[in-house]
Amino acid sequence: MAERIEQRLEDRVPELEQLERVGLFTRKEVRAVLRRASALEYKIQRRALRKEDFINYIQYEINLLELIKKRRARIGYSFKKDEIENSILHRVHSLFNRATGKWKEDVQLWLSHVAFCKQWNSKHQLSKVFSSMLAIHPNKPALWIMAAKWEMETRLSSESARHLFLRALRFHPECPKLYQEYFRMELMNAEKQRKEKKEFEQAKMDLGEFSYSEEILKGEMARIIYRDAAQKIKGIEFHLAVLSIAKLFDFTQDLQKEILESLQSKYADDPLMWDYMARRELELGSPQSTEHTTKQMKVSEMTQREERCCAVFEEAVRAVPTEVMWKCYITFCLERYNRKTNSKELKQKRLERTLSVFDKAHESSLLPEALYKQWLQLLLESNLFEKATEVVEAATQRFSLSVEMWQMRLQVLIQLKSDDVTQCFEEAVKHVKSKGTLPLWILWVEWSEGTNSKEDTEALYQRSLRGTTPAESMTMKEKYLDWTYRNGGYKKVRKVFTSLCENRPFSLDFFRKMIQIEKEQESCKMLHLREYYERALREFGSTDSDVWLDYIKEELSHPHGKPENCGNIHWRAMKVLQGDLVEDFVSKYTLLQTGHL
Known about the structure:
Blueprint: H1 2-21, H2 27-43, H3 51-75, H4 85-102, H5 107-119, H6 123-136, H7 141-153, H8 158-171, H9 176-203, H10 214-217, H11 220-232, H12 236-246, H13 253-266, H14 271-283, H15 295-319, H16 323-338, H17 344-363, H18 369-381, H19 385-398, H20 403-415, H21 421-431, H22 438-451, H23 454-467, H24 470-500, H25 508-519, H26 526-540, H27 545-557, H28 566-576, H29 580-593
């Protein structure tokens, strides 16, 4: 092993001598490089090889290349690259090859090699890397696409890119992304050849025997790919993706027409098809001279386009009367409404149109639950409070088990300061099952705090504890405790705390809140604090180490605390805590003793 390492280090000597001779590195730096290289070589020659050692060695060589590049730029020296950089590049490629040979399954390692080749313009080497990587990872379409794109865009070889795509499709005959990128590549190739032909014709050059294929120039290869894919891939998304690619090229009108016809015949009942056809009307504006177009004419043109879109959507909701179709229609209307415009007239038309569509969807009982909230926001923004009340009432009738719907209705009534708030709350808790009603109870008690008497609010808090599930009641207990202290004072909150402690479950914050309240008193009693801590430890002593530490801190810092109790608390904690919490407690307790916590 030592002989091999010595040989590798000797192979470095010529490049290091050149670095020193041309003034890029000093002798001291050359020796440092040699020492570091020796250490890294020993690590990658061990029996038990580690991936990290190879990565560190590669990164060191890359850093060395970058440093040489900066030094060259600084002193303005650009010679001897074959003797210096090429030698290092060859070594890095060799290291990558060894690493990817050992850890073939690590795609990130392969991609790092690809990135290195691209950065240092190693085209010949990169071609080999792609070939080896695809032989080992043929099951990853993204790698095939990357290799084909490189062949097409960097090496300008459409033939090689086509060959790679065809190989990839043998492994992945139903991969939409592969077909999309293959389709794009053929159109790019056609566009490139069209430009070349045009330039040759303008220059009046004789091409001799060479001639451009008319089929390729018209994008017929892309058409073949599309037809083949359309037979294998189901779903409208692929057709829409291919159509969006075709629209990027100005010579594909016939191809776009074919894809559109296929869309309309195969997916006549698909909301996405109707959505696309409707939105397409925005792009099909009448061609006008832009020089003499006034603002009013632009507004008029946009209004006409949007009306054409809506006409298609109206036809769509008649042909496909589903929630998804209405959602597409409403989403379009909201997008147009939210677009900025200086025309108040256009803004008003968009608002009226959006509200009208919401209304129609609601009347058809096909408005999705999630969209009611947006409808309501729009009505409130437009100061249509009466309509908002009607809508939210209808929403709760249709989705009577939805907590969100009831919450929305209650918020509207509270905002409008209606007299029916209490009645609506009663109706809500009656319809909705106890599980999940916590947001309603929180909203109710918060409203009651600012509206009703203290007696009514307290009765409501007590009722909420019975009306929620045990898990949700923990939150209500915390809120009840906090409200009682704010409105009834210390003595009252002590009584409430004692009564609440009779019914499990509790949250840790419930006890922490009571401890905090006790600490805020002028005559903070250690006796009471011990009671709260002991209650908290009975519930959470085995699952939370911080409670024990807080208890110990309290005994140490309180004027009436007993530091001698700390040993006993520590002993109890060690017995009760489970698993990793013991270690966590010991480390924190040590920090506390040394004054670092």
